[in-house]
């Protein structure tokens, strides 16, 4: 039996925001296009078309109708550029006016954040369908643990990387680049080696030939400041960094950073691939414009309280969670804080039930002082899909729930009638 090597992939979409625009306007393929500038008004103008041609199909808009960089006036910066535009030296974070000098003929389009989010979700879900151990690293990049995935070892990870690239292209029409290496640090560097639409495989033994010639700045974590300081010390490349004594780096950069620099220069990194962390709790709170009193401002407080509970329920539903525990937080006019919570029999994302439980919490705190702040919190969260599975699989549970629901309503009804109680 062959031993499994640790194989970690870093996947990064190619010219992400720009490639998304090319899906919308395929006639721009191969041309220099930069993304930046104002809102989607440019786009609306394109869509509207000239007189007598309202709402032209986007793919038929003639090239001459697209705005050019040379006509751009303003202080906007470029978020990204197609590879055709990059040949002119145009790229991310460059001022548009400066870029116009380098590539006046480039077409300028604004970012469509909604489309960006949609494609980001789509490519990430395509990855997890094939390789479930994925760490979300931002809008267009992820780490993937290939080690135990079928095909993850073949060709050092090349077979699986190719499969994922193909699946993403089929799902989105977009290309990406993948680096596969023994750890995240090296994988992140490797994904840039063959951009766009490339795959690079790096083994431990490649450190000297592939990694050491690179500039220190290529290490994820060495920013412009550290890089400048390294340069002042005569250290330009990762190889030169690796040649330094650890003690020397510690003396110049401090214990933690110095030791870390030494490790990364030698290609060592044990960080695990961390799959999406689940939120522990969600909350909504509000500070009042003026301090409110539980009895004298009862009506106003009641409205605010119900509003918070409904917003919290919406948050849970939108993000797909249900909560086991509902709590409240009060801040009094003397800035003292009181919290209480209540655990329910089942999970909930229902505004009315949250309001009932939070109301029960409120009965357990002193309400003689004025209040500055009121908050509602949901914790003990589960994914709503898990919750539904639980529900569907046990019919008796549902009956029990209904019975409890009725009981809860009775309790609420009783307390509503008792005097001196706020909720
Ligand atoms: N982005 C941004 N502002 C920046 C850099 C990037 O808004 N200063 C956005 C636009 C990019 C996206 O983030 O499309 C992803 O960033 P990348 O650095 O991965 O750049 P690209 O995906 O555009 O190009 P590459 O092919 O080099 O990955
Ligand atoms: Mg990218």
List the helices and strands and how they pair.
Layout (H helix, E strand, L loop, with lengths): L7 E6 L2 H9 L8 E4 L4 H8 L29 E4 L1 H4 L9 H7 L4 E3 L3 H18 L3 E3 L4 E5 L12 H15 L3 E6 L2 H7 L8 E3 L5 H5 L12 H9 L5 H5 L3 H8 L1 H11 L15 E12 L5 H22 L1 E12 L4 E12 L2 H12 L8 E13 H10 L1 H23 L6
Parallel strand pairs: 2-4, 7-8
Antiparallel strand pairs: 1-6, 1-7, 2-3, 5-6, 9-12, 10-11, 10-12
The structure holds 2'-deoxycytidine-5'-triphosphate and magnesium ion (MG).
What this model shows, in words?
- The protein is an alpha+beta fold.
- Among the domains are: 16-111, MutS, DNA mismatch repair protein, domain I; 212-265, DNA polymerase, domain 1 (Orthogonal Bundle), CATH 1.10.150.20; 281-417, DNA polymerase, Y-family, little finger domain (Dna Ligase, domain 1).
- Helix content is 41%, strand content 20%.
- It has 16 helices and twelve strands.
- It has helices at 16-24, 41-48, 83-86, 96-102, 113-130, 158-172, 184-190, 207-211, 224-232, 238-242, 246-253, 255-265, 298-319, 351-362, 384-393, 395-417; strands at residues 8-13, 33-36, 78-81, 107-109, 134-136, 141-145, 176-181, 199-201, 281-292, 321-332, 337-348, 371-383.
- The protein has a five-stranded mixed beta sheet, with helices on both faces.
- Helix 13 crosses helix 14 (351-362).
- The radius of gyration is 28 Å and the shape is globular.
- The chain binds 2'-deoxycytidine-5'-triphosphate and magnesium ion.
- Magnesium ion is lined by residues 12-13, 16, 140.
């Amino acid at each position: 039996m062959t031993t499994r090597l640790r194989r970690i992939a870093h996947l990064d979409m190619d010219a992400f925001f720009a490639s998304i625009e090319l899906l919308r306007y395929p006639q721009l393929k191969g041309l220099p296009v930069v993304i930046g500038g104002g809102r989607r008004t440019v786009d609306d103008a394109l869509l509207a078309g000239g007189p007598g041609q309202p709402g032209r199909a986007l793919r038929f808009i003639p090239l001459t109708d697209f705005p050019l960089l040379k006509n751009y006036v303003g202080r906007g910066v470029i978020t990204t550029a197609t590879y055709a535009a990059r040949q002119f030296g145009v790229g991310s974070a460059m001022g548009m006016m400066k870029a116009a000098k380098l590539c006046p003929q480039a077409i300028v389009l604004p970012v469509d954040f909604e489309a960006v989010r949609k494609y980001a979700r789509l490519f990430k879900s395509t990855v997890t369908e094939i390789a479930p151990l994925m760490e979300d690293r931002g809008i267009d990049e992820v780490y993937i643990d290939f080690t135990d995935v079928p095909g993850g070892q073949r060709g050092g990870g090349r077979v699986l990387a190719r499969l994922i690239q193909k699946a993403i292209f089929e799902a989105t029409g977009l290309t990406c680049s993948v680096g596969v290496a023994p750890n995240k640090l090296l994988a992140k560097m490797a994904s840039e080696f063959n951009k766009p639409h490339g795959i690079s495989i790096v083994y431990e033994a490649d450190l000297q030939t592939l990694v050491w010639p690179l500039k220190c700045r290529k290490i994820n974590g060495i920013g412009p400041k550290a890089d400048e300081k390294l340069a002042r010390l005569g250290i330009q490349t990762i190889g030169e960094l690796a040649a330094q004594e650890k003690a020397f780096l510690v003396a110049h950069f401090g214990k933690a950073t110095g030791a870390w620099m030494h490790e990364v220069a030698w290609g060592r990194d044990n960080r695990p691939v961390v799959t999406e962390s689940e939120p522990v709790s969600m909350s909504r709170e509000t500070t009042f414009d003026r301090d409110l009193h539980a009895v004298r401002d009862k009506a106003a407080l009641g409205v605010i309280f119900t509003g918070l509970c409904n917003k919290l329920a919406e948050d849970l539903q939108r993000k797909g969670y249900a909560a086991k525990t509902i709590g409240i937080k009060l801040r009094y006019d003397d800035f003292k804080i009181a919290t209480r919570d209540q655990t329910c029999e089942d999970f909930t994302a229902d505004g009315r039930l949250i309001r009932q439980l939070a109301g029960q919490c409120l009965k357990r705190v002193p309400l003689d002082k004025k209040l500055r702040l009121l908050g509602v919190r949901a914790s003990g969260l589960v994914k709503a899909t898990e919750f539904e599975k639980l529900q569907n699989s046990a019919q008796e549970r549902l009956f029990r729930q209904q019975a409890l629901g009725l009981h809860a309503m009775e309790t609420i009804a009783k307390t509503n009638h008792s005097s001196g109680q706020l909720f």
